[in-house]
């Protein structure tokens, strides 16, 4: 059997597994919601400082007074965990373009994940001719939907705290309706603790073209394809310590096949490398949807080398076969693009397999995708 057929079958098998994970994703998202309900935890609400969209800067301090009071009012209901965040989030209303709203949903989803929150509240205010206009938006992190509340318009002659109290009542009413709807659809499950524990894990696969260097490269002339299946875990979900904030641990399975025909001048042979290893990556976020990563890994390889007799009129036959078990080390760098739960990766890795006679060095350019649970 030619090596290309083996790699093709493995690629289709890994693709089928990835599609199965994607198909199951709505159920996992619902289970995550049910977990918090079953444990009696309060939903967390993050309130950003409001944007001043008016021409006057005289009332700029309303930017934090409004969200601080909204947060205090929600806390008093004893139904939410509330955190106000001292950053002004630009307000994107329903009249914005589809692309603007899509980018905003992506950013709010990432902020919700960062704070482990179910809701993110943003807003804007403008004061013109002693009239204050307040716009408020509620973002549901689980459903990834933005909800615009009706605009509040009042004269500043009225007490500002009374205006904010009325706004807080409307926000609380909207959140309560949403929670009640979820309770109707949520059913407790004995597997909920398990779903909560795997939060932060990513299952994915990648494909790469390996360039083999040195003596091994002279034999195989870069004819090597690498297919990988990996399970990574965001260590910030494991502990709140700053050291682990941008670290990811991973378990990876690799399959590499290289074939050298007699036309190259060397004996016809087939190299098959299967390996398993542990890795660690440090991610540097450059935007909510884009980050740079540096990684290192250690593991073990099981290598099978087959010498083939291609004959003249039939399929190749194996005339000699040998196996070897050896350690390897790898380094790499790449890019990660995050689209909600879907992750797209690309980059390169350098890897050395420590054979007892001649080490194998190879550089791989890869492309992959994964799904964050």
Describe the model.
The protein is an alpha+beta fold. It contains six helices and 15 strands. It folds into two domains: 41-185, 3-Layer(aba) Sandwich (Rossmann fold); 193-372, Porin, CATH 2.40.160.20. Strands 8-9-10-11-12-13-14-15 form an eight-stranded antiparallel beta barrel. Strands 1, 2, 3, 4, 5, 6 and 7 form a seven-stranded mixed β-sheet that branches. A hairpin with a 4-residue loop joins strand 5 and strand 6. Helix 2 packs across helix 4. The radius of gyration is 28 Å and the shape is elongated.
Give the total of beta strands: 15
Stretches where pLDDT is under 50 for at least 5 consecutive residues are 1-8, 17-35
Count of individual domains: 2
H/E element sequence: HEEHEHEEEEHHEHEEEEEEE
> Which class best fits the helix and strand makeup?
alpha+beta
What share of residues is helical?
Answer: 25-40%
Q: Roughly how many Å apart are the termini?
A: 37 Å
Q: What's the CATH C level of the largest domain?
A: Mainly Beta
**Outline:** elongated
Binned strand content: over 45%
| Helical run tally | 6
Tell me the radius of gyration: 28 Å
Biggest β-sheet strands, sense, barrel: 8 strands, antiparallel, barrel
Write the layout of secondary structure elements.
Layout: H1 3-38, E1 43-49, E2 51-52, H2 62-76, E3 80-88, H3 98-115, E4 119-128, E5 131-140, E6 145-148, E7 152-155, H4 160-185, H5 192-197, E8 201-212, H6 214-220, E9 224-234, E10 247-260, E11 269-287, E12 290-309, E13 317-339, E14 342-353, E15 360-372
Parallel strand pairs: 1-3, 1-4, 2-4
Antiparallel strand pairs: 4-5, 5-6, 5-7, 8-9, 8-15, 9-10, 10-11, 11-12, 12-13, 13-14, 14-15
Helix pairs in contact: 2-4
């Amino acid at each position: 059997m030619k090596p290309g057929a083996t790699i093709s079958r493995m690629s289709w098998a890994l693709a089928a597994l990835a599609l199965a994970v994607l198909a199951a994703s709505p159920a996992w998202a619902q289970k995550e919601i049910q977990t918090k309900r079953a444990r009696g935890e309060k939903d967390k609400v993050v309130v950003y400082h409001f944007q001043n969209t008016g021409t006057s800067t005289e009332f700029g301090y309303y930017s934090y007074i409004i969200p601080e009071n909204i947060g205090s009012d929600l806390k008093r209901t004893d139904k939410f965990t509330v955190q106000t965040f001292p950053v002004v989030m630009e307000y994107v209303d329903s009249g914005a373009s589809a692309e603007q709203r899509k980018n905003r949903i992506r950013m709010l989803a990432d902020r919700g994940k960062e704070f482990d929150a179910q809701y993110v509240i943003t807003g804007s205010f403008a004061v013109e001719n002693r009239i204050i206009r307040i716009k408020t938006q509620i973002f549901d992190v689980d459903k990834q939907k933005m909800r615009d509340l009706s605009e509040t318009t009042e004269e500043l002659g009225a007490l500002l705290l009374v205006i904010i109290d009325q706004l807080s009542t409307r926000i609380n009413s909207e959140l309560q309706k949403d929670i009640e709807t979820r309770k109707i659809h949520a059913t407790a499950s004995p597997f909920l603790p398990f779903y909560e524990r795997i939060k932060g894990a990513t299952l994915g696969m990648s494909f790469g073209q390996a360039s083999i260097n040195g003596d091994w490269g002279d034999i195989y002339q870069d004819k090597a394809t690498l297919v990988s299946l990996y399970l990574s875990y965001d260590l910030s979900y494991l502990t709140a310590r700053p050291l682990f904030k941008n670290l990811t641990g991973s378990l990876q399975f690799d399959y590499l096949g290289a074939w050298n025909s007699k036309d190259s001048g060397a004996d016809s042979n087939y190299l098959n490398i299967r390996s398993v290893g542990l890795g660690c990556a440090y991610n540097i976020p450059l935007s909510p949807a884009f980050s740079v990563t540096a990684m290192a890994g250690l593991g073990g390889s099981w290598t099978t080398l087959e010498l083939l007799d291609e004959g003249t009129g039939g399929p190749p036959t194996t005339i000699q076969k040998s196996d070897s078990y050896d350690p390897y080390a790898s380094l790499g760098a790449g890019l990660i693009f995050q689209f909600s739960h879907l992750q797209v990766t690309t980059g390169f890795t350098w890897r050395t397999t420590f054979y007892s006679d001649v080490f194998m060095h190879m550089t791989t350019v890869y492309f992959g995708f994964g799904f964050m649970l």
